[in-house]
Structures are given as C-alpha cells and as structure tokens.
Amino acid sequence: MARADVDDRRFDTPKGGRRSVSFRGNPDKDRFGRFTEWVARAMGTPAFLLGLSLFVIVWMLWNTFAPEQWRFDSIEIGFTALTLVLSLQASYAAPLILLAQNRQDDRDRVQIEQDRQRAERNLADTEYLAREVVALRLAVKELASKDFIRAELRQALDELDRRDEEDADRAPAPAS
C-alpha cells in the first residue's frame, strides 16, 4: 500500500502529507494577517521604543568609541549604515502597520453591521413588547374591578332579599 493511501485514511494527518510553508498554498491563509497585527502591536509598545533607542545608542557608541578596526559605520559620514538600517525597518513597518489597520477596519465594519442588525432586532422587539403592554392595559381596563364585583353582588343580594320579602308578603297566611 502506498504511503499517500495510508495518510489519506488517517484523520490525524493532514491530507497530502506535510503542510506547505508558502502563503499561497497555506491552509491557514490568515497567518500573514496575524503576523502584521503582531508587528503593529509590538511596534506600538514602550518596550519596542526603548529597545530601538538602546540599539541606536549602542550602535553610535560602538562606532564612535570602539577601536578603529572594529568600527563598521563611520561617524564622519553620518552613520550611513545606521540610517540605512532604520530606513529599511521603517519601509517594512509602514506597510505592515497599514495592513493591520485594514484588517482592523474590516473587523470594525463587520462589528458595526452586526451591531446595526442587533439594534434593529432590539427595536422590533421593543415595539412588539410596547404593543403587548398597551393591549394588556386595555384588557385590564375592561376587566371588572373588585369594587365593581362587590357592588354588583350587593345589588344582586338586595334584589334577592327584596324578592324574598315580596314572596313572603304574597304567601297566604298559615291556617291556624
């Protein structure tokens, strides 16, 4: 049995063997986007600024006070290598930060749309509940109150008492 056939039947091994490292064929297409966000987050920290400042200070001190044969960037020409290194860092940092901002804008746009839909549902629910409350209030107004029922019962009892008295008056007197 071929090795590919064995891998295709196993569920714990990715289909096709090893995973590709290229961004085009990578199953995790979001890896580069997460990397750009990591870079943008890291560059916005005090630790990064402190580290970069220390790097520049050490570079300048080394190339100023180290023995002549150990220096690799000259103070006489304005630390050209340092300028190139910082320019290279900035030329990569700017697009990575823009990519991270674009991803955040996309997430914000989706979140805003979801919030809008949620607000519409909440409004519809609130309107429905308001109509239900109004209907219940109208129904409660039409219900008989305790006092009304007591008055009706008293009136009915009075009517029955009056009939009993009339019946008693009309009845013939018992023969003695």
Question: What is the gist of this entry?
Answer:
With 176 residues, the chain is mainly α. Helix content is 73%, strand content 0%. The protein has helices at 3-9, 31-43, 46-65, 80-142, 146-170.
Structural overview:
This is DUF1003 domain-containing protein. InterPro entries: DUF1003. It comes from Agromyces agglutinans. Keywords: Coiled coil, Membrane, Transmembrane, Transmembrane helix. The chain has 176 residues and is mostly helical. It has a domain of 113 residues. It is 73% helix and 0% strand. It has 5 helices and no strands.
Features:
mainly alpha, 176 residues
Write the layout of secondary structure elements.
Elements: H1 3-9, H2 31-43, H3 46-65, H4 80-142, H5 146-170
Secondary structural class = mainly alpha
Major beta sheet summary:
none
Identify low-pLDDT runs.
17-21
The number of distinct helices, counting runs of at least 4 residues, comes to 5
Number of strands: 0
Mean pLDDT: 84
- Please give the alpha-carbon distance between the first and last residues: 125 Å
- What share of residues are in beta strands? under 5%
As a whole number of angstroms, the C-alpha radius of gyration is 44 Å
The helix fraction, in percent, is over 70%
- Basic shape: rod-shaped
User: Can you write the helix and strand succession as a string?
Assistant: HHHHH
